[in-house]
Amino acid sequence: MDFSYRKKATKRSPLKMRPLRLPGQSLQEEIDRRFEKTLEPVILMVLASLMALLEWSKSFFNSPPQPKFYTFLAVLACFYGIRKILQARQDFKILKQARDGEKYVGQFLERLRESGYRVLHDVVGDGFNIDHVLVGPTGVYTIETKTIGKPAKGPYEIVYDGETVTVNGFTPVRNPIVKAKAQANWVKGFLKEVAAEDLPVQPVVLYPGWLVKPQPKGCEVWVLNPDLLPGFLNNERESLDKRDIQAIEGSLSVYVRNSALK
Predict the structure, then answer these.
(1) What pTM was estimated for this model as a whole?
(2) Which of 30, 62, 139, 183 matches a 20 to 30 Å C-alpha distance to 115?
(3) Spatial distance between the Cα atoms of 255 and 185, rounded to a whole number of angstroms
């Protein structure tokens, strides 16, 4: 099979190869972007407070002061800034939890190298990213990691009926099954483009730390706790040899490195 990637980089770099991406790298980049946005309200708060302080100082030197007006502006700026900072703080907490979950799953998947598997992390497409792509003797897998906070007390169960996932009885606003299928279809299309062959791609959704109830047989998407993934892989029939695995990994690696140049 010819898995050579045909797309050429549009920019030149002094590096011969771009580094592969790390688990959770897209989330880390989003955290950095959110942090930069919090600087705006902080700067606004500081400037407004300095203006109010300046006006109050004028009153002590008999210059025409307008402390009430500038104090009003400072209060508005602080109200806006504090609101934005508290919102960003909650966003950071959620993003960091998701990032750490991807790192945990990424490190878990790295152990599968002993069984002949290769893994690429944070494969970025057009407006989306795939947390992990696993390639091994039993085929190609896209892996979506869902790191959800567990309740302090009581049950923490994931139930998958073949169509919908429920988390402790509640249905997520965004259906992870739809996202997992879209990721697998994208990788399948990519491999078909570069290899001119149809290869099946298995979508997987992992919930680290949660009790995932056994799913019905024949489901298009696997919904699992990461610890159960090796058992599912072992039950699959081997369909790729070492040469195919290396070719697929190489094509995806070239894509990841080229996408970093954009």
Answers:
(1) 0.71
(2) 183
(3) 16
